[in-house]
Amino acid sequence: MATLLTVLASSAAILAVTPASASEMPRQLTTEARKSYQAEQKTLAGYRTSKDAVTLLAYGRLLARGKIASDHNPLRVSDIDAAIAVYRSLLTTDDAGIHAKVVAELADLLLRKGGTENESEAVALRMDAAGGTAQSEPPAEMPVQQPTADTEAALRDKMAKGSLDAAFELLIALNRENSSEADMLRSQMLLMANLSALDGDSAVVRLSGRYASSFDAQKHPEALKALFELASGGGSESAVGEIEKNRKALISILGKDEVRRFLWKLVNGGSSRAAELIALDLVDEKIYGFDETDSKWAVSMLEEAGSYRANYVIAKLYYQGIYVDKDPARATAAMDRMLAGAAEAGQDRVVVADRFARMNLSDSLIAKYALPIYMDVWKGGKSSIIGRLARIIVSAEKAGYYASTADMPIPPERLVAELSNAYEIGDLSAGFILGDIYREGRLVGEEPAKARSIYEGLKQQYPDSPEMQLKLREQVAKLARRDLEVTLNYARYYEEIRALAEQQDPWAMKEYGVLLVKGAPQFEADPEAGFAMLLNALSLGYFGAGPDAADLALATNNADKLKRIADVYANFDPRILTPESNIQLAKIDVALKQFSKALQLLDTPEVLEVPAGRFLFAQVSLADGRLVASEAHRQMRDIILSFNGDGATLLGFIQQLMQEDGLSPEFVEPVLERLAELADKRDVNAITAAFKLRQKWPSSEALNFLKVVDWCSFLAERGQGGPLTRVAINVNAKAVGEESFSHLIDKVEEVLPHLPSNGNLRMFLAKQYLVGKYRPKDYAKADALTKQAAELGNEEALNSIATNYYFGQDVAMDRERAEALYRDLAFVGSNRSSLALARSYSKGPSTRVYESRAFAYYIKAALNGSVTAMTELGRSYLAGAGAAQDEAKGVAWLEKAAALGNTDAMIQLYYYNFIKSPTNHNPEAEHWMNALVAAEVPDMVLRKAVLLYDRDKEANKQEIFALLDHAERLGSQFARRLKNSYIREARAGVAK
User: Fold this and answer.
1) How much is the pLDDT for 920?
2) CATH number at 794-900
């Protein structure tokens, strides 16, 4: 025993020297370790061959606590198996005191190692020690009551028998009584602690922790320091726990330097847990003041320790790149060792899985390491684990980890049912997940009513938690936003979002910022204020605000704004940035044309594991010239086709790929099929995108007309009639076919009640009842629909009513009333009404007054973009009708109308130029003739053929007959006769 004390004393002396600065400690520790290494190894060799019980007990304790593994590593690695063997050899000792210690300490070691056999052996040992009564833990001392004469005597009696707990309780009692004996008792307690430490008793560690939280420690810091000197001398992991638990008090009373010294002393004594604190101190905001040199040294030491906790720290450090370069392979290797060593270290399996879940791993690694443990525990009957399971499964499903629901470890319906059961029996965390599932429509269909009910119920469960109330208000606001287009409760929603943003709710700050940037119904935009709000949300760590802030900067091509966003990201420790945040930073670099910097951010295993990272990597590689377009497009399409994550991300991929040039219909069709899948799920944004992309890819089967009509009808049922209106107004019945056109009419009639303010669709349906092809003729219905449209201010309906009055159709003729309606409509910009009035006046009495009125309405409509009015205005100037004759102005207006494709204007320009020079060589007239031929006007195609015939019928023979054939196909009967005439003439010439 004396030899052992000498070794322990020599180890303690290492840290008894004048404290060095934190960064010098690793070097000092290594130097001192080398000096004591040889002496300690000789002592250990003597222990192995000793037969003395006291010496062997000391040897067993040293093995259990740890021994120096090499001459350059001061971390001691515990050898529990060897220690157990030594303790078992001492069970036959005749010394009752030694035997009691051996039994108690061996039981602790067996429980520490874990396993059924070891636990059974530990129970048996404790039963034997307790006289046959099993105890899972050593008997605890009875709680000490308030000091009285009797209890004080009891404490003194226990103290006389060596109880440190009794000494501490007695000291506290004397302090309450302001007894002068307290100082002497404190000295006695410290002496007892020294003797207890020499004997390896863990009571001194417990005492140090209890004393740290007492008022006496604040008044006597030297006593606190002395106790922790003793507690940390043996490298006890429990002592590290006491430092962690009481760190605020220790730092306040003794200062960081002393606490660091205790931890170095514990490291020297063999504590890997102390090394963990050193390694992670910078992550924990420099609680103890270790610097980067200390931390890197501790990392290297932990790698040699090989314990479960050491592997956990190594995995965390190398996965997140803390003080070391990121090394996913090394991190996952440590995770594998961590899993393998967890059982031997006696770690609870759920705790192990929780550690993985908190390590900020990717979805795939969480699914690999944490999910199987949770699944086994859940299958074993621990239903309370369902919340943890659900979080991982939902997150993995959002990220596209599962190819289909069949690949999920729990079927969606079963998972939702289990969450519901857990929530009903009081698991509130399960309620949060369940509410989000119903709100987002993940795993099961959207059920906003159920989600709202759950959120309201949770509010009742957290009446005194402002944080939870704020979070639940946020979830309810998200529900309100979902139905905003139907409920139209814009003002109430904006008020709630503003209130949440003022309370620093990050999601609401982001949402309110977007509203300010883009504006909304009944909400005035303020882009600068919105951008500032988004930056504030981002600075709070809400990385979801980054893309919206970047969108504004990109839309305005504002490099300063992009740099401000990058500066906010730069304020975060790069280690805590998620792959998604690095992807967003890469987008900013792309916008700033920093392609190499963007590729550097993207080209990491963690980022390329995320589909969005791979997609952007392909885009940047294309922009940087590292990939040809066809290969980049193929990679982007492959990501789209294999993606199984959230719809918004998938839609973003599709829209980005569809912006690329050079895509063939065959290439894009599978991509459009994915878009159709989203639209079929009633995704509003997907439907809008599908409607727009059909205009670019009209032949796509995935976006066929019937599907587009159904999707637009769904939007119309939600109050968004724009897409269906555009389809109805622009549809070509012959092109889509009778069946499809009839389906469109059915859908329009079906959704009209949901669109009380849509006059265009009412007029579309009114026409069908007037024409009587796809609906039975029903003038009453047509008239009713037209009147409804007119009441809504629909220009076509009002013009139709005015026309009915003008010509006396279905009503008594009343041209004054008709012209009054036309004038009102013309006043608000109706070109149709302006033209109707102009024509009415031009057909009136041949007076300058009427011509001037006609001219005025022609010019009004022409200035408003009417091509027909431009043509009529040109004719008026040429003829001097309604205004002074002005050929230059007349030609200018005709050329403007012709440039917009009006063939009447082209014909007028042809005759205008031809009349000035009626020959076969009139370039100005021939220019407009050629334009009319290109526009497939049959008469002009014939005129071109005749012109070429008159010029040189033999040289132009082939072109002449091609023109005549084309005119015949366009319906010209004269073209056939003229062609036959030319053929007969040619034959007659040959006969001569």
Assistant:
1) 80
2) 1.25.40.10
Assess whether the region 2-129 and the region 794-900 belong to the same CATH fold.
Answer: yes
For residues 95 and 37, the answer to whether their CB atoms sit within 8 Å is no
User: What is the CATH topology of the domain spanning 348-482?
Assistant: 1.25.40
- pLDDT (average), residues 891-905: 91
| 237 HSE (CA, 13 A, CB side) | 15
The pLDDT score that the predictor gives to residue 15 is 39
pLDDT digits (tens, 9 = 90+) for 481-508: 877 777 788 889 999 999 999 999 999 9
Say whether pLDDT at 647 is over 90: no
pLDDT band at residue 918, thresholds of 50, 70 and 90?
Answer: confident
Please give the model's pTM, rounded to 2 decimal places: 0.50
Q: How far apart are CA 8 and CA 235, in angstroms?
A: 11
CB 890 within 8 A of CB 870: no
| 652 HSE (CA, 13 A, CB side) | 12
pLDDT at site 142:
38
Phi, psi angles (nearest 5°) of residue 280: -100, 5
Residue 467 has pLDDT above 60, yes or no: yes
∠ CA 733-735-741, nearest 5°, is: 35
- Residue ranges of domains in the chain: 2-129, 144-269, 271-347, 348-482, 493-572, 704-792, 794-900, 901-991
Which tokens hold the place of 536? Answer: 């504030």
- Using pLDDT thresholds of 50, 70 and 90, give the confidence band for residue 136: very low
Q: Which of 805, 810, 721, 816 lies closest to 763, judged by CA?
A: 721
Note every long-range contact of 895-903, with CB atoms under 8 Å and residues 24 or more positions apart, other chains counting.
896/870, 897/867, 897/868, 897/870, 897/871, 898/928, 898/931, 900/867, 900/870, 901/867, 901/935, 902/867, 902/868, 902/870, 902/871, 903/932, 903/935, 903/937
Calpha distance 645→654 (Å, rounded): 13
DSSP for 37-52 reads HHHHHHHHHHHHH---
- According to the model, what pLDDT value does residue 486 have? 72
pLDDT confidence tier of residue 682, bands split at 50, 70 and 90: confident
Instruction: Give, as one character, the DSSP assignment of residue 67.
Output: E
Rounded Cα distance, 851 and 883, in Å? 8
* Domain 2-129 listed as CATH 1.25.40: yes
Pick the closest to residue 481 from 460, 445, 451, 503 (CA basis). Answer: 451
Query: Which 3 state secondary structure label does DSSP give 733?
Result: helix
CA distance 616 to 2: 69
pLDDT in tens, 77-108: 567 778 888 889 889 888 888 888 888 888 87
Instruction: Report residue 801 as tokens.
Output: 């009513």
Mean pLDDT of 274-295: 77
State the virtual CA torsion across 861, 864, 868, 874 in degrees, nearest 10: 80
Cα separation, 446 vs 681, in Å, equals 10
> Which backbone phi and psi does 661 adopt, to 5 degrees?
-90, 160
Residue 708 sits at φ, ψ, to 5 deg, of: -60, -40
